[in-house]
UniProtKB/TrEMBL annotation:
Phylogenetic placement of the source organism: Bacteria, Thermotogati, Synergistota, Synergistia, Synergistales
Annotated organism of origin: Thermovirga lienii (strain ATCC BAA-1197 / DSM 17291 / Cas60314)
Function (record text): Catalyzes the gamma-elimination of phosphate from L-phosphohomoserine and the beta-addition of water to produce L-threonine.
NCBIfam families, A to Z: thrC
Cofactors, names only: pyridoxal 5'-phosphate
Pathway in which this enzyme or protein is active: Amino-acid biosynthesis; L-threonine biosynthesis; L-threonine from L-aspartate: step 5/5
Protein name from the UniProt record: Threonine synthase
Length: 347
């Protein structure tokens, strides 16, 4: 199995000394979403990043960041995370034989992600504070104690994540008209933009897409232009009030002629349900913000008819089962009895 590092070797800063490892990251499905697409009047695709080895897009950047950390002689890595980065860092640290410390906002990380960080053997430190504070602490610890930081302030992380954009173009043969992503710390949207620009400069695509960034209303600093000291949203992955890559992302979105938009938690959960029940695609809440954003754009008359739209479905729905189980879903319980079953099935 050739991993991302081998597949895109010529586009990555890989040397003869870079250790090459893979867990099978990348080459995720680009799923055509016919039903929802026709309701919106566009050709719609979801890049299903939940199919990555640790269930999110973070693996694309982590494999390169970890390889470069190992090449540089690091013995340990550190990151702050709303959950997915920690799961990915913990897995790849195990793979490359490095020690891993993760700083998480206490009580605000989805269960699946927390259990991943633990089982891969990371040292998990819960911070009584939000992600933004955890990242400040991680950056300080990294510079004072010589730990390699593997958040998206590490340039190799975003470099690896460009591969998502390359795969979309390789598969479609063109770039989409709109590329829609959920935005938290604003790294991924920046990485995709750089990936598209690089492919255009290589002559692989003729034009770059308009970049559309969707935030949760309770954590939407790039929509309002002001940081959120107390971000809050059901989409805990993007519960971030002061994105470190905010300036770069704002620039990318402006250059591309795209925009940022905010959606409510209700709209996010509705989009999650719709994606799963109409298309068979289960993505975590943050990943469904783009669909909520597209529906809002449609209502506001901002979504052009017939365009090609790709949403990045950033994380697997199984990461956060509680959000479903604490919702309105009803389970019908009966005795182990045929007549009761017949009654339910005939309703
Ligand atoms: N979607 C998911 C599922 C995420 O986990 C994240 C970020 C994003 C979207 C936003 O990406 O930060 O590049 O704008 N998760 C980080 C983490 C913050 O710690 O796992 P971004």
């Amino acid at each position: 199995m050739a991993g991302l590092l081998e597949r895109y070797r010529k586009y990555f800063p890989i040397t003869d000394d870079t250790p090459i490892e893979t867990l099978g990251e990348g080459e995720t499905p680009l799923v055509k979403l016919n039903k929802i697409g026709s309701e919106l009047g566009v050709e719609l695709y979801g890049k299903y990043e939940g199919a990555n080895p640790t269930g999110s897009f973070k693996d694309r950047g982590m494999v390169l960041a970890m390889a470069k950390a190992a090449e540089g002689g690091a013995k340990a890595v550190i990151c702050a995370s709303t959950g997915n980065t920690s799961a990915s860092a913990a897995a790849y640290a195990a793979r490359f034989g490095l020690k891993c410390y993760v700083l998480l906002p206490a009580g605000k990380v989805a269960l699946g992600k927390l259990s991943q960080a633990l089982v891969y053997g990371a040292k998990v430190i819960a911070i009584r504070g939000n992600f933004d504070r955890a990242l400040e602490l991680a950056r300080k610890a990294s510079s004072e104690m010589g730990l390699a930081i593997v958040n998206s302030v590490n340039p190799y992380r975003l470099w690896g994540q460009r591969s998502g954009a390359w795969e979309v173009c390789d598969e479609l043969g063109v770039s989409p008209d709109w590329m829609v992503l959920p935005v938290g710390n604003a790294g991924n949207i920046t990485a995709y933009w750089t990936g598209f620009v690089q492919y255009k400069n290589e002559g692989k695509i003729k034009k770059v897409p308009q970049m559309v960034g969707i935030q949760a209303q309770g954590a939407s600093p790039l929509v309002s232009g002001e940081s959120f000291p107390n971000p809050e949203t059901v989409a805990t992955a993007i519960r971030i009030g002061h994105p470190v890559n905010g300036k770069k992302a704002a620039w990318a979105v402006r250059m591309s002629g795209g925009f940022f938009s905010a959606v409510s938690d209700e709209e996010i959960l509705l989009a999650q349900k719709e994606l799963a029940s109409k298309e068979g695609v289960f993505a975590e809440p943050a990943s469904c913000a783009p669909l909520a954003g597209l529906k809002k754009a449609k209502r506001e008359g901002k979504l052009p008819e017939g365009i090609k739209v790709v949403m990045v479905l950033t994380g697997n729905g199984l990461k956060d089962p509680q959000v479903i189980l604490s919702g309105q879903e009803e389970i019908c319980e009966i005795d182990g009895d045929e007549s009761q079953l017949r009654e339910v099935l005939s309703q």
